[in-house]
Amino acid sequence: MRRGPRIARRAAALALSLLLVPAALLALAAWLTARPGDPDLYPPAAGDEAVVVRLVARTWHSGLLLPRDDLARAAGEIGAGALLAVTERFHAYPALEIGWGDAGVYRGVPTIQALDWRLALRALFTPGGRPAVLHVVGVAAEPGAAFQDAEVVPLRLSRASFRRLAAALGRSLTVRDGHPVEAGPGLYGPSLFYEAEGRFTLLTVCNHWSAGLLNAAGLPVTPLLDTLPRGLALDLAWRAAPAR
């Protein structure tokens, strides 16, 4: 009579271990791959002039919303001519939403409902990765009104921190004869695609790109958590104290 409860307890213990071991391995992997921030860059010191940037996190994709005038100023200060040309192309808009992703999927999928999963899986698992593009959108509305379908995380950067972000963004642009290379009309609003550096793979998705720019600006990030937009938003909330 006692054998039944004993077997049930063992089964429950086995089931619990099967859950806890993968969770522990994931936590260890996240800790081992975490990238530290740079306290000389972030957060800005009291009294420093600050620039507010915003992570825009949708269901499967994230990008950064950057103030255009500040981005143009930073591009000029660091000599990023191609990035400066992008800001001039969108001179009529106070902010730019910029994202990075697989050239084929990004340009061919205007909404998540239109996603071809076979194409998405091919993008993730192609050996050596696939070509990438940048998507740049001119934004005139307030972030709350422009991105009602997304989670928006504001972050205050110092001028030095923002210049580092701008430099990393400038390196993401493919430059030909000193100019950015346009790759066709964008998905929504006043937008364009640009050819981009880097290869899209399972280990380098759009959210890793967003996190990489923020890490260049001095913020701590955790690539394993940052694979999905919600994970990146939570990572910033836990480790980077977003602006209120």
In spatial order, strands of the major sheet run: 5-1-2-3-4-9-8
Q: Number of DSSP strands?
A: 9
Task: Sketch the major β-sheet.
Answer: 7 strands, antiparallel
pLDDT average, as an integer? 85
* Percentage of residues in DSSP E strands: 15-25%
Count helical runs.
9
Radius of gyration: 21 Å
Instruction: Using the alpha-carbon principal axes, give the shape.
Output: globular
Low-confidence stretches: 20-29
Helix content: 40-55%
Structural class: alpha+beta
- What string gives the helices and strands in order? HEEHHEHHEHEHEEEEHH
Oligomeric status: single chain
Domains counted in the coordinates: how many? Answer: 1
Distance between the termini: 61 Å
Describe the structure.
The chain is α+β, with helices and mostly antiparallel strands. The chain has one domain. The chain is 43% helix and 24% strand. It contains nine helices and nine strands. The chain has helices spanning 3-33, 68-78, 81-89, 103-108, 117-125, 143-146, 159-172, 206-216, 229-239; strands at residues 50-57, 62-67, 95-102, 130-139, 151-158, 175-176, 179-180, 182-185, 191-200. β6 and β7 form a beta hairpin. Mean pLDDT is 85; it is low at 20-29. It comes from Methylobacterium variabile.
